[in-house]
User: Which sequence fits this backbone?
């Protein structure tokens, strides 16, 4: 049913497939054998308003029948108590809970993202999830931030949650339709981050304890991250390799000088 919060400035996951459509599709997909699956409901898997408990149980039963070894679900912090029940129900199947923290800075969470929770709410959720694998999503360049601020916030947020989570997934911002961010972008008050910014974030956080990954979408398109035509594709490949090898990305291109100038612009 999509996200019931539906107020984040950059997100359009407010309405998605109905459970009557989801269950048959889910069964069809699991005709193949998978060791690990990720359930993406465009919101919180544990929110009963989005996914009624009987439907959730039906999904978990299908997973148990298919011999899956690990399941990733996504949720907001306020619903994590349900994750403890889910892990108990799954038994030997490993559960990974992914939370869209976006930033560890409360000012950014409130005024730039409109996330609806604070960093302390996230910390409390982590304590509740003791013993359960945790993934945190962090944004690269939330709305209203300059290129420099976007990089610094992503790095600082990763450093802040080191030791609290098992995986950090950096999500470079993409322009979704019918969002405040799209309005800002159309009025030239926002541009998606450079690929150079993403690489800067990855290189500066690669030695942190959590596993660092990044799987950007819409790369090279007008609503997503990009560099010049010469290096966009190759650097995208290097980012994908980084998620597997965690090796520093070293690369040079003429457009890097333009990015450096962008990084020097006045802070918000």
Assistant:
């Amino acid at each position: 049913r999509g996200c019931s919060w539906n107020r984040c400035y950059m997100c359009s996951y407010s309405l998605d497939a109905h459970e009557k459509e989801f269950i048959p599709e889910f069964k069809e997909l699991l005709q193949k054998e998978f060791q690990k699956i990720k359930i993406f409901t465009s919101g919180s898997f544990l929110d009963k308003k989005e996914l009624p408990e009987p439907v959730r149980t039906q999904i978990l039963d299908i997973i148990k029948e298919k011999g899956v070894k690990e399941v990733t679900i996504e949720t907001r912090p306020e619903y994590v108590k349900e994750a403890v029940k889910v892990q108990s129900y799954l038994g030997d199947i490993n559960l990974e809970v992914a939370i869209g923290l976006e930033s560890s800075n409360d000012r950014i969470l409130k005024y730039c993202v409109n996330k609806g929770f604070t960093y302390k709410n996230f910390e409390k959720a982590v304590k509740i999830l003791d013993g359960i694998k945790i993934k945190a999503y962090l944004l690269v360049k939330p709305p209203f931030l300059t290129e420099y601020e976007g990089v610094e916030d992503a790095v600082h947020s990763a450093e802040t949650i080191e030791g609290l989570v098992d995986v950090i997934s950096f999500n470079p911002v993409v322009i979704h339709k019918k969002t405040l961010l799209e309005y800002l972008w159309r009025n030239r008050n926002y541009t998606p981050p450079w690929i150079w910014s993403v690489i800067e974030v990855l290189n500066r956080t690669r030695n942190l304890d959590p596993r660092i990954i990044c799987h950007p979408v819409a790369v090279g398109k007008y609503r997503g991250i990009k560099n010049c035509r010469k290096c966009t594709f190759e650097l995208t490949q290097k980012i994908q390799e980084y998620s597997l090898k965690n090796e520093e990305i070293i690369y040079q291109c003429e457009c890097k000088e333009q990015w450096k100038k962008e990084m020097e612009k006045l802070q918000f």
In short: The CA atoms of residues 72 and 255 lie 37 Å apart.
